[in-house]
Predict the structure.
Amino acid sequence: MLMNTKTSLVDRNIKLGGLLVVVTLLGGGILPAQDLQQRVAAKPAVVSPDSSGATYIALDAKLRQVFKGDVPNGLEELRALETQQSRVAEAIEKVTVNVQQGSAQGSGVIITGDGYVLTAAHVAGKPGRDAWVVLSDGTRLPAKTMGMNRNKDAGLIKITATRSAPWPHATLGHSEELEVGQWCIAAGHPGGWQADRGNVIRVGRILAIKGERRSAHTLFTDCTLIGGDSGGPLFTLEGKLIGIHSRIGTDMQDNMHVPIDVFAADWVRLKNGEAWGVLPGYRPIIGVSPPKDSDAAVVGTVVPKSPAAQAGVAEGDIILSFDGVKTLTFKDLQLAVQQTLPGDTVLIEVSRDGQAFRFPLTVGVEQ
């Protein structure tokens, strides 16, 4: 961890136009970082050829050391930092969106002129579903869910509405070059899009990077996130996209983000609408088990008060299909359940005493 017992925290809420900016200044325990500015700016984008976004804001010369992870040295640097944050906040407002899919609601970020949106897998949901993307001005656009890597909580959505000009989109960074201690800017729509509030910006630092540099799977920051922020973007001080909000730890200042390079590695599969893996902490369950010594799609036991019990599934039922997927064996049923997310409402079809029944069932989560 970056912080130690001598680390001090000072939270400052700064109102920038219609944007709420939460700045966390850390003192002590800062690890040295490499100068990333030239290396990040020189490398080509890794997610899509259409990556010339409008969120990049050239760094003020006064902030070169701060960019590396240093605390502002004096009032002049602090004012320069606030100005830089303000300019980035204004730039990223147009690319940060609210995402609505079924009962799930979160955030996302437009990354291409033709309307691809990165978000969290648990926000996007199953591929091929209808979704909505809400822009900063409240415009609600139809969209489709694309692929998702549940192992990393990486999801993709595509805006289906047409537009003569390219959609505003983020400038892409490279998470493989990040350093612990580096400053970062989180954006999102906590609690959903609100006309009287707009986008919410939080400024903090990278606390840890999990995984090998070229295959890091999680970024940890102290940018305070709450419900509705999931799927939102994480930027550098230059406004380059480096991650997507995923989960909140036991402490609200212990937040997890999917590195942008994860999306780069999985881009083709995501764009093709593939779905794979199991979300950490989001394992779906319905609460049934098979009979002993049988692999048939027959319900042996039903857990009391489980999703299956609440839907009306009973012991002895033969499961014919789950969410439109035929289930010839209990393994088929397990695989079908794994393709859903907790909170999804699906149809389960059963045969009972020679008669077919269909029940709506809301998928639960493993505790």
Notes: DSSP finds eight helices and 24 strands in the chain.
